[in-house]
Amino acid sequence: MTNLPIQKVLQKPNVAGRMVCWAVELSEFDIQYEPRGSIKGQVYADFVAELSPGGDPQEMELGLQWMLSVDGSSNQQGSGARIILERPNGVLIEQALCFTFKASNSQAEYEALIAGMLLAKEMGAQSFLAKSDSQLATGQVIGEYQAKDPHMAAYLRYVEMLKGAFTTFELVHVPREQNARADLLAKLASSSKGGRQRIVIQEMLKTP
Fold first, then answer.
1. Which of 14, 26, 56, 64 is geometrically suited to a Cys-Cys bond with 88, CB 3.0 to 4.6 A?
2. Could you tell me how many helices (H) and strands (E) the chain has, helices first?
3. Pick the residue with more confidence: 67 or 90?
4. Residue 96 belongs to what domain range?
């Protein structure tokens, strides 16, 4: 496939010099020229195929691990979160969330983690490592801390429920400086308007 004028050049009867030699040599092979399709269209097609939900069978077979970095932020302007999901092949998927409800830093951290897990589930991830700079949320999820606050307990129950969708799930605490990109983008998201309503906590608080 080519969009170059090689077909016309080699098939012209008035070619001279080296082109004659090339035309004779190549005439021994059954060469067919086809126009190349739109590169832009092919890029979109490859992108959709690469990020289509359902998971890559090869990734599932090899047990390749996805990487998730999450961070939530709350200030006087609002609250938000940032999610960075990295596929085993190095493709990054970033998502910014601006909450339409008031949330503490701990609640925003949980919202970020839950949103990241939902995104990973939608993308077909089977095994992934999640990183958060929230010591409280991480400690509660891995069992080091108790979730005595009703809101935190509701978030924790939802995280435990989502963990069942993955073959392996690991959450680790990282220092804030190692989560700088997600931290910065979360602060930018918290200063924006509009965004995501909190429905998880409202439903989970109804669960005894």
1. 64
2. 9, 5
3. 67
4. 57-204
